[in-house]
TrEMBL record, chain A:
InterPro entries: PP2A_PR55, PP2A_PR55_CS, WD40/YVTN_repeat-like_dom_sf, WD40_repeat_dom_sf, WD40_rpt. It comes from Elachura formosa (spotted wren-babbler). The gene is Ppp2r2d. The keyword Ribosomal protein does not apply. The keyword Zinc does not apply. One of its GO terms (cellular component) is protein phosphatase type 2A complex. SUPFAM superfamilies: WD40 repeat-like. Coiled coil: none annotated. One of its GO terms (molecular function) is protein phosphatase regulator activity. Keywords: Repeat, WD repeat. This is Serine/threonine-protein phosphatase 2A 55 kDa regulatory subunit B. Belongs to the phosphatase 2A regulatory subunit B family.
TrEMBL record, chain B:
The lineage of its organism: Eukaryota, Metazoa, Chordata, Craniata, Vertebrata. This is IER5L protein. Residues 227-238 have a biased composition (Acidic residues). Belongs to the IER family. Residues 214-246 are annotated as: Disordered.
Length: 446, 322
């Protein structure tokens, strides 16, 4: 139950929140540099732990509601306290995380242990004073936004106006005000009149980082729609529609599954957005709807697609080698059988939008430098992650001869997957969640 | 990690996934089930197109088509036995079960025949409107009870009460009903017709499990632990209530006719999933009951998947919708 289900840095990067399948939220705080321990800068230690969601049972529908935290999103900090939104399948909660390092002592009418003092003992007025105490971090639920979603919530996104946020389920997107819990506005509804006509669902949604009227949502068909809330109250009609035409030669039984988008993220600049489907990451320019500007194959080109291809330079989908396509199909088939093909990988930008990162199988995660197209594969594992050790890039070999340190395609462990990653908003620190372990890596500074 | 890409095995894997999703914690995941239904559709299309190709090849060998036309008629147990798939205006009753078990009993012969309704044998010979090329009859099924080489999963309606149906037919015609999409395919001397059983009262949800009066709208049924919307109770109830009456939740056949394709490539999206996703009145009890009826038949793995295919009409509805 402590499988990590979401990872998110706050706006300054000092706090890192993780949610797990058991409904718990753990917040890590970055240690400040101190003279005594100069090397401890950059370490994240547990700051607060609390139970955000509990399992519920909907008696009306005989439906159990999982407590798994699907998403956490921080609010921009406005005072000493920190606020975050956490959501499970049905309910979103606003949590306030605050520090308490002083305690009031010397009450007039109460003893130190809280018992009322006897009246005759109260002979003079005693004004309580604040005394320092050990730091205590409290998390308290401030708002609960419930009963607005019939389907499973997959995304929440805080608007740049810091007053509203959206929550998206499979078929609808709702707009909330952070102060108002008893009402939300439906802004996107793709539910067909006849459920038999359902062909796609919403898989992710996000507000634009700067324009508070713009949002995007991705679908299971591999399309992204951009909506402008100024145009209408109900944004069923998109303002922009992003879709890359399918390559007909690559059709298979599983074409629909592998084209389903699992995550969509705006770049920090707001000019681009990135989508993750099962095999690739695509960067889109918001001004160009007909195809992405960059496409990165996440799995090594030969892992899932062309491992048996005798032509070593075969990289295109139109490879005529029958055994290649056969390999792909059989691989996808077994991934379909063990449900791995439904894994929803996330992706993230670095602070300057120069590099993108996403997770993969075998506890590998990959970073792609956009300008040089250089990609790096790294592994998050206990053996290779001693503190302060430099991670060695991994390589997946596909041909028969396996070099030292290479991993052979067939020994990839598809049960070890990195679905959730996060990049510090300003520095090169990344958080990588591998099942129930959280790894934090920092760029080595000489 | 080798895996057979046999369409049949993919179909049974997919159905298993759909079935187990109902028991999953947190309710039915709409997204996953939608994707599984796409795989199901793709596999089914491939399977059906292969069957069709086989049929076509055999037709070429038998131009007079006589053996092909034999409509193995399951001796109707009684009059008015609605087919499992045609949840007709006829009330589901014991005859229903008889018809089903009759059809089920034939499962062992690889050809699952479902008498659409009790009609005199001569009408049964009439080309019924049958659906989908998907489930077309394999050549060589000759005679009642025949079907040794018939395509598994061929559901054909023998006889129908389509008032408008029953056109005179030349002997070289074979018609097949896809009980799922309710599209009729007529193979005439190797030339294919396709029409839709429009006013077919049979164009209703299969309701094999409805042995009892259909549940009232909004009634919760245990087969849908994942039902998420109460207002969809209308949809749920309707298949039961309306389904028996040929109710509205099931798209008119004309829509489904558009769905039919003979090639497996580029399935149209329009009504593609429509017949795969809907509230299915009896969930998987249809299969369960049929399997029980089949217990006297030797069931091997292959037969199971063929049964699965045969009941695909029922199964493909078993997904998700809320």
């Amino acid at each position: 139950a402590d499988i990590i289900s979401t990872v998110e840095f706050n706006y300054t990067g000092d706090l890192l929140a993780t949610g797990d399948k058991g409904g718990r939220v753990v917040i890590f705080q970055r240690e400040q540099e101190t003279k005594g321990r100069p090397l401890s800068r950059g370490e994240y230690n547990v700051y607060s732990t609390f139970q955000s969601h509990e399992p519920e049972f909907d008696y009306l529908k005989s439906l159990e509601i999982e407590e798994k935290i699907n998403k956490i999103r921080w609010l921009p900090q406005q005072n000493a306290a920190h606020f975050l939104l956490s959501t499970n399948d049905k309910t979103i909660k606003l949590w306030k995380i605050s520090e308490r390092d002083k305690r009031a002592e010397g009450y007039n009418l109460k003893d130190e242990d809280g018992r009322l003092r006897e009246r005759f003992r109260v002979t003079e007025l005693r004004v309580p004073t604040l005394k320092p105490m050990d730091l205590m971090v409290e998390a308290s639920p401030r708002r609960t936004f419930a009963n607005a979603h019939t389907y499973h919530i997959n995304s929440i996104s805080v608007n740049s106006d810091c007053a509203t946020y959206l929550s998206a389920d499979d078929l609808r997107i709702n707009l909330w005000h952070l102060e108002v819990t008893n009402r939300s506005f439906n802004i996107v509804d793709i539910k067909p009149a006849n459920m038999e006509e359902l062909t796609e669902v919403i898989t992710a949604a996000e507000f634009h980082p700067h324009h508070c009227n713009v949002l995007v949502y991705s679908s299971s068909k591999g399309t992204i729609r951009l909506c402008d809330m100024r145009s209408a109250a109900l944004c069923d009609r998109h303002a922009k529609f992003f879709e890359e035409p399918e390559d007909p030669s690559s059709r298979s039984f599983f074409s629909e599954i592998i084209s389903s988008i699992s995550d969509v993220k705006f770049s920090h600049s707001g000019r681009y957005m990135m989508t993750r489907d099962y095999l690739s990451v695509k960067v889109w320019d918001l001004n160009m709807e007909n195809r992405p500007v960059e496409t990165y194959q996440v799995e090594h080109p030969r892992v899932l697609s062309r491992a048996s291809c005798p032509r070593p330079v075969c990289v295109s989908n139109a490879c005529p080698c029958p055994q290649v396509h056969e390999y792909l199909r059989s691989k996808l088939c077994s991934l379909y059988e063990n449900d791995c093909i439904f894994d929803k990988f996330e992706c993230c930008w670095n602070g300057s939008d120069s590099t993108i990162m996403t997770g993969s199988y075998n506890n590998f995660f990959r970073t792609f430098e956009r300008s040089t197209r250089r990609d790096t594969t790294l592994e998050a594992s206990r053996e290779s992650s001693k503190p302060r050790a430099v991670l060695k890039p991994r390589k997946v070999c596909t041909s028969g001869k396996r070099k030292k340190d290479e991993i052979s395609v067939d020994s990839l462990d598809f049960n070890k997957k990195i679905l959730h990653t996060a990049w510090h908003p300003m520095e090169n620190i990344i958080a990588v969640a591998a099942t129930n372990n959280l790894y934090l890596f920092q760029e080595k500074v000489n | 990690m080798e895996c057979t890409l046999d369409a049949q095995s993919l179909i049974s894997i997919s159905l298993r996934k759909i079935h187990s999703s109902r028991a999953q914690r947190g309710g039915i995941k709409l997204h996953k089930n939608l994707l599984v239904s796409y795989v199901l559709r793709n596999a089914r299309q491939l399977y059906l197109s292969e069957r069709y190709a086989e049929l076509y090849r055999r037709q070429q060998h038998y131009p007079d088509g006589a053996p092909l036309l034999a409509m193995p008629a399951c001796p109707p147990p009684a009059a008015a036995a609605p087919p499992e798939l045609a949840a007709l205006p006829l009330p589901a009753d014991t005859q229903d079960r008889e018809a089903r078990s009759c059809g089920a009993a034939r499962g062992g012969a690889e050809l699952l025949e479902v008498p659409v309704c009790a009609v005199p044998p001569e009408l049964q010979r009439a080309p019924c409107r049958d659906s989908s090329p998907g489930f077309y009859r394999a050549a060589g099924s000759a005679g009642p009870g025949g079907g040794g080489s018939a395509a598994p999963g061929l559901l054909y309606a023998a006889g129908c009460d389509f008032a408008s149906g029953g056109a005179p037919h030349c002997s070289s015609r074979t018609t097949v009903l896809d009980l799922d999409t309710h599209v009729v395919t007529t193979v005439e001397n190797g030339y294919l017709h396709q029409d839709c059983c429009s006013q077919c009262p049979c164009c209703c949800q299969p309701a094999p499990g409805l042995a009892s009066p259909p549940p009232a709208p909004g009634t919760k049924r245990k087969y849908y632990p994942g039902q998420e919307e109460e207002e969809e109770g209308v949809e749920e109830g309707e298949p039961g209530g309306g389904g028996v009456a040929g109710g509205p939740p099931f798209a008119p056949c004309t829509k489904r006719a558009r769905f039919e394709e003979y090639s497996a490539e580029h399935p149209q999206d329009s009504s593609n999933i429509s017949n795969l996703i809907s509230i299915f009145g009896s969930g998987f009890t249809g299969l369960v009951s049929r399997q029980q009826a089949d217990s006297e038949q030797p069931l091997n793995g292959q037969l199971c998947s063929k049964q699965a295919l045969a009941s695909l009409g029922a199964w493909t509805r078993a997904i998700v919708a809320f």
